[in-house]
Amino acid sequence: MAHINLLPWREEAEKAKQREYFTLLTAVAFGALAVVFLVGQFYQMRIDGQIARNQYLKNEIQLLDERIKEIKELNAKKSELLKRTSVVEQLQRSRNVGTQVLDEIAQVVPSGIYLTKMEKSGSNLQLIGKSESNNHLANMIRNIEASDFFADAVLESITANDAQSKLLSDFKMRVRIKGLLDKNDTTQGANP
């Protein structure tokens, strides 16, 4: 048999396999780098999108905060206006109270009752006077309760004074004027 030297051919085949291996390895490395780059770009796009959405939400939240602040200021102005209108309405209602009180007192006080003093405190009216009998006081309380202007008649005291005439007894009565608010009530009633 003839002697054939296969060594250069084997070396050439081995070098070809190595070149093929390194080419394949380089292609896989470039492919892997391309995949990593594309995945990185994909996630970077998602991150950028989320950052953009977050910034949009922050801007909208700032706008809403400004609107909420404006609404609070408007509510404060509204409550101030409600207080003012309440005071104006109160003043309007109580504009002629003095004459109305005297007119109504003339209607509800029966004969036999003599008023010596009247004091107005807010919506309360303190009546101090003399009475010929307790029946006259009872009639006066009934007239007050039936009145459209007065309410809540409370007889605080009846005293008979021996030094004065035995026919007359002193009394104190408290009556509330309907439709009037005390100064304390105007500050409480105006708040929503």
From TrEMBL:
<feature type="coiled-coil region">
    <location>
        <begin position="54"/>
        <end position="84"/>
    </location>
</feature>
<dbReference type="InterPro" id="IPR052534">
    <property type="entry name" value="Extracell_DNA_Util/SecSys_Comp"/>
</dbReference>
<feature type="transmembrane region" description="Helical">
    <location>
        <begin position="21"/>
        <end position="43"/>
    </location>
</feature>
<keyword id="KW-0472">Membrane</keyword>
<keyword id="KW-1133">Transmembrane helix</keyword>
<dbReference type="Pfam" id="PF05137">
    <property type="entry name" value="PilN"/>
</dbReference>
<dbReference type="InterPro" id="IPR007813">
    <property type="entry name" value="PilN"/>
</dbReference>
<protein>
    <submittedName>
        <fullName>Fimbrial protein</fullName>
    </submittedName>
</protein>
<keyword id="KW-0175">Coiled coil</keyword>
<keyword id="KW-0812">Transmembrane</keyword>
